[in-house]
Amino acid sequence: MAESVNTVIIGGGVLGCASAISTQKRLRKINGNNDNNVCLIEKQVISSGISARHSGIVRSANAVPSAAKLAKNAIDYWKNLVAIWGVQCEYESNGAMWIARDTGSGKNEKWSELANSLVNLNIQFGQVDRHQAQEICTKNINLSDNEIFYFEPDAIQFDPTKVRKALYEAIKINKINIREKTNVQGFVTDNNGKINKVLTDNGDINCENVINAAGAWSPSIFDSLGLNIPVSIETVNVVNWLTSQLDIDYRMPIIADYSNLAYFRLWRNGEIHMHQPRHRNTREIARTFSENPLHITGGDLINDPTNQSLGYGQIRIYEDIARKRFNDLDKSIYSSGYRSYFDITPDLKFILGKDSKISNLFHCLGSGQGFKYAPVFGELIADCIANEGEFLDVAEEFSISRFSNTYMTNFWDQVSGSENTLEAEAAAL
To answer: Taking each helix axis from N to C terminus, what angle separates 109-120 and 65-79, rounded to the nearest 10 degrees?
Structure first.
C-alpha cells in the first residue's frame, strides 16, 4: 500500500532540503502538528550532487535587482538559520572584495551602474581605493593600479561539510520523511493532469503536490509527463592550494577577481580555494545545451568519476592565475582539484514556483546559484504551496512559463543558420 503525504520533494540537494523543511513547517502550521506532511526523495544521499561541491559563498551583488533582493534576504536567513530551519550553521563573515579592470579615471561604468543599483536596494557595495582594498585584503594579495575595487562587507562563507551536517540535523528536528537511495520511476496523474502518485523503486507515494528540486536531473525525470524543463549542466574547475597560515591571513575576504576571472576564498584551515566565474554569451550557453543532451546524460555526468578529475594542463593554468594575485604562491603546493558543475537555464536565471502545465507541480531550480539562496527559496516554495506569502510575486517573475516555444526557438536561432552555427564556430577555432 502506497504511503500518503501532502507534498513530495524530488531532489535532496540543498534546495530540495530547504524546500522540504520550510514546507513541512508551513503545513504543520496550517494543518496542525502533523508530521506526515512531506516526503523528501534523493537518488543517492543528501547533498551528494552539485551541493557537495559548491564554494559556500553567499553574497548579494547581482545585476538582476530581484535576485539581489533575494540574496540580501538569504544572507539574513543564513545568519539566523534557527528561525528558519531550527538549527544553526557556523559561517565566516569577512566580506567580499570585488576586483575589476579600470576602464578610465579610476572607474568602470558597468561596475558603477551595479554599485548604484545595489545602493538603491540598501545593499552595501561601495568602491574603495587601492590602499583601503589592500588593508582589507591583507598584505599577501597583489593589487594593481589599473584595477578598481568594491567591497561587500555583508558577504559570508560556509564550509559545505558543515552545511551538509546542518541539513541532516534540520531534517531530523523537523521530522522530515526522507528516502535516500531512491529513484523516481514515474508518475500517476488524474484526469486533469495533476500528479497524484510518485512511483519509486522504494515504494510509491500518494501526494497532493510535487516539488521539483532535482536540478540537472529534472529533464529526464519529468520527460514522461511531456515536460521540457530547460536545464543543462556546465563544468566549473576547482583547485585548492595548500598554504602556510603564516602566509595567508585568516581575515582574508572572499576575492571576486574579475581581472583574472577567478574566485578565491580561504578553505578548510589554511587552503586557498579557487574557481572561475561564468563569463559567456547566448551562443556559449546554447553550446552547453547542445553538448549535454538533456534526456540522455542529464545530471548523471555530475557523479561519473571519469568526469571529476582535472588534467595537469588545467592545474597549471590555475596556478599561473593564482600566482598573479598571491605573493606567496610562487612555490604553490597543489592540494586537490576536481570538476564541479552548474545546472543552468537558457537565461541563467532561476526557475521557481508553479509549473505552467501541471497545476500541482512546483519548481525550485537555482541555475548554478542555488546554494546562496537556499533558505529564502525554501520559504518561497512554501509560499507557493500555501498560496500566500511575501515571495509569490518573485515566483511569478521566475516562472518556467517564460520559456515558451517562441522563446526556445529564438534561443536556438542564436546558433543556427548557414553563417552562424556551432559547427562553423568550431571550425574557425
So the answer is: 60
